[in-house]
Amino acid sequence: MFDFLKRKRSLPTFAPLVTDMHCHLLPQVDDGSKSLEESLEVMEVMKECGFEEIRLTPHFNYPRFPNKAEDIKERYKNFCAEVEANKGERELPRMTSVTGEFQVSDGFNDYLESGQLLTYKFANPKKCSEKGLLLIEFSLHQKRMGLEDTVFKLQMEGYDIILAHPERYPYFDAHSSLLEQFKEQGVYFQVNILSLDGFYGEASNRKAYEYIENGWVEFLGTDMHNVMYAQALRHASTNKKIIKLLEKTEFENKNLVQNK
């Protein structure tokens, strides 16, 4: 169906990361993949680009994507079975877990209070809290009041925080006092790989590299959604600046628990 993705093979550029810890390939639950076939095609490209494992992170964003944890876990279980039954000769990354990308919005407290926050774990249990690593995002358009209070509350509740794609928020820059505060509090940052290749524009590209140069970034993620993103990942896999970055910089992706 998506034969244009097979026109040329990409480089295994992202093999040092081992794991992609941010992608939206669980079909028909958010603005990511729309079908099993699309997910299979995209996953095949991700394998070609060097990823051995992927963790699915559907949006939890009320009211736009009012997903529920138990429903997502059941969909993930069924999806894993469907992938295994339909992958054929494709070489695909292993799917090791489903967590979520939780937006700090009006419905976020409901997820917190009802215990629906799905998290990651480090392979070394001494590196993270008992409740694990929670991937959160902010609005891409407007800064919400009280972000620092929410992050602090989550940390007091026993979560370690990963802030998704800080380079994409227009109200932050390389000298943001709030981002500096988050780093002082121990918040992890995850930059989108496609930002490093200019996919989201010049500002995100510049800030992504600045945050890495600041020593602020522990994780890289594809934030993979669909075949257009897969094409962009293939292009990014040939970017010499990204290749050099991965040769000289250690990220935490490979240190997450590798479930079988």
Secondary-structure blueprint:
Layout: E1 19-23, H1 36-48, E2 53-56, E3 59-60, H2 69-86, E4 94-98, E5 101-103, H3 108-113, E6 133-137, H4 147-156, E7 160-164, H5 177-184, E8 188-192, H6 202-213, E9 217-221, H7 227-236, H8 240-248
Helix pairs in contact: 1-7
Summarize the model shown:
The chain has 260 residues and is of the alpha/beta class. The chain has eight helices and nine strands.
Can you walk through the features of this model?
The protein is an alpha/beta fold and 260 residues long. The chain has helices at 36-48, 69-86, 108-113, 147-156, 177-184, 202-213, 227-236, 240-248, and strands at 19-23, 53-56, 59-60, 94-98, 101-103, 133-137, 160-164, 188-192, 217-221. It has one domain: Metal-dependent hydrolases (TIM Barrel, Alpha-Beta Barrel), CATH 3.20.20.140. It has a 6-stranded parallel beta sheet. Strand 7, helix 5 and strand 8 form a beta-alpha-beta unit. Helix 1 runs parallel beside helix 7 (227-236). The longest helix has 18 residues, at 69-86.
Order of helices and strands: EHEEHEEHEHEHEHEHH
Q: Looking across the biggest beta sheet, what order are the strands in? A: 3-5-6-7-8-9
Radius of gyration over C-alpha positions, nearest whole angstrom: 17 Å
Q: What is the total tally of β strands? A: 9
The low-confidence parts are: none
Q: Structural class, from helix and strand content?
A: alpha/beta
Mean pLDDT: 95
**How many separate domains?**
1
Number of helices: 8
CATH class division: Alpha Beta
CATH topology: TIM Barrel
Strand count, sense and barrel status of the largest sheet are:
6 strands, parallel
Approximately what portion of the residues adopt beta-strand conformation? 15-25%
Helix content: 25-40%
Shape: globular
The CATH superfamily is Metal-dependent hydrolases
State the end-to-end CA separation. Answer: 30 Å
Q: Give me the CATH architecture, please.
A: Alpha-Beta Barrel
